[in-house]
Specification:
This protein is mainly alpha-helical. Helix content is about 55%, strand content about 5%. The chain binds zinc ion (2 copies). This is RNA polymerase II transcription factor B subunit 3.
C-alpha cells in the first residue's frame, strides 16, 4: 500500500493495543495481527484497509461522522486516550496561528484578553461547540494577521536554531576542556615520574648527602608543577577545569591515586624542637593538649604542633 500519512513529529512509537477493533469493518487484532489503526482529523479510528477502500478514489465522507476526509489526512495514533491525542493536536495547531508573545502587547491586560480569546477558541474545538463558526473565526484571524503570524513563526524557528547551536557549542567546549584537562594530568604525572627516576639515579650515583638530594628534588618538582600551572593559565593555552569533573576528581584523589611520598604534605616539618612538656593556662587549649587514649604525651604534642604549622602555612623547606 502506498499510503502517505502525516508523520508524527515527536518520533514516538504509534500506539497499539491488543484489543484494538476497527469501528468500521470490525476486524480486530486477534484475527489480524498486523492490523494498523489510523486516526482521522475528526478523531475517528479506522484500519488501513478501510482507509484504502473508502478514500483511494478521492475525498469521501467519514463513515462515522460524515466529515469529508482525504486519505492523506489520517495519522498514526500516539496516545492511548484519543481525547489527549485530540487536545495535543488542537493546541499545537492553535499555537502556530495564535503565536503572539507578551512583549507585542502594550499592557498585561491586553495580553490576558488575547490569551483568554485563544483559550476560548481551543475550548470550543475540544468540546465540539460551534465548530463551524470557530473555524471561520480562526480563518479570519489567520487572514488578518498573516504577516505577523509568519514573522513570529520565523522568529521562533530562529530562536530554536540559536538554542540548538548554543547547545552544540557547549558540548564541544565540554569535550575540549576534558581533553585539555586529561592532557595536563598526564604531563604532570610524567613530570613526577621523571623527577622520581632522576632522584633514584642521583641517590645511586652522587656522593652528596641523601637528605640534601631529596630536598633538591622536591624543589625541582615544585617548580615544574608551578611552571605547568602558569603555562596553563596563559591566555590562548587557557585551561578551565570542567565543572562536571567536580566530585569525580575528589573521589579519585581519595581512593584511586596512590600516596606519593614525595608530595609536600608528607614532608617532615623539622622547624621546631619538641619540648618534654608545655605549660598552658588557657582552659580550652589545655584540654586539647591532653592526648586521647593510646597516645604518648610527646607524640600528641608533635601532632598538635605539626597541625598548627600546617595551618599557618609556614614554608616547609
Ligand atoms: Zn477497518
Ligand atoms: Zn469522523
Amino acid at each position: 500500500m502506498d499510503m502517505i500519512y502525516i508523520a508524527n513529529k515527536q518520533n514516538l512509537p504509534p500506539f497499539q493495543a491488543d484489543n484494538d477493533v476497527c469501528p468500521v469493518c470490525h476486524s480486530d487484532r486477534y484475527l489480524n495481527q498486523s492490523m494498523k489503526l489510523f486516526v482521522s482529523p475528526c478523531y475517528h479510528k479506522m484500519c488501513e484497509s478501510c482507509i484504502e477502500r473508502l478514500f483511494s478514489m478521492g475525498p469521501a465522507p467519514c463513515p462515522i461522522c460524515s466529515q469529508i476526509l482525504r486519505k492523506t489526512n489520517f495519522y498514526q495514533q500516539v496516545f492511548e486516550d484519543l481525547t489527549v491525542e485530540k487536545e495535543i493536536r488542537i493546541r499545537a495547531r492553535i499555537s502556530k496561528i495564535f503565536n503572539r508573545t507578551q512583549n507585542e502587547f502594550k499592557t498585561l491586560r491586553e495580553y490576558n484578553d488575547y490569551l483568554e480569546m485563544v483559550e476560548d477558541i481551543t475550548f470550543r474545538l475540544l468540546n465540539n461547540e460551534n465548530v463551524q463558526e470557530t473555524e471561520e473565526e480562526i480563518a479570519r484571524y489567520s487572514q488578518q494577521h498573516k504577516d505577523q503570524i509568519s514573522a513570529n513563526l520565523e522568529r521562533q524557528k530562529r530562536e530554536k536554531r540559536i538554542e540548538q547551536l548554543r547547545k552544540e557549542q557547549t558540548e564541544k567546549e565540554k569535550d575540549k576542556n576534558l581533553e585539555e584537562y586529561l592532557e595536563m594530568i598526564e604531563s604532570e604525572e610524567k613530570a613526577k615520574e621523571d623527577a622520581k627516576t632522576d632522584l633514584i639515579t642521583k641517590l645511586a650515583t652522587s656522593d652528596k648527602d641523601a637528605k640534601e638530594i631529596i630536598k633538591e628534588n622536591l624543589i625541582t618538582l615544585k617548580r615544574s608543577s608551578m611552571r605547568q600551572k602558569s603555562k596553563n593559565s596563559q591566555p590562548g593555552g587557557y585551561y578551565s577545569r570542567p565543572q562536571y569533573l567536580d566530585g569525580l576528581e575528589e573521589s579519585e584523589d581519595e581512593e584511586d591515586v596512590p600516596i606519593n611520598p614525595f608530595e609536600d604534605s608528607y614532608a617532615d616539618i623539622g622547624n621546631f624542637t619538641l619540648k618534654p612538656s608545655y605549660v598552658e593556662n588557657n582552659q580550652i587549649v589545655k584540654k586539647a593538649l591532653n592526648p586521647s587514649g593510646g597516645f604518648v604525651q610527646s607524640m600528641h604534642y608533635r601532632y598538635m604542633l605539626e597541625a598548627a604549622f600546617n595551618g599557618v602555612d609556614i614554608p616547609q623547606l
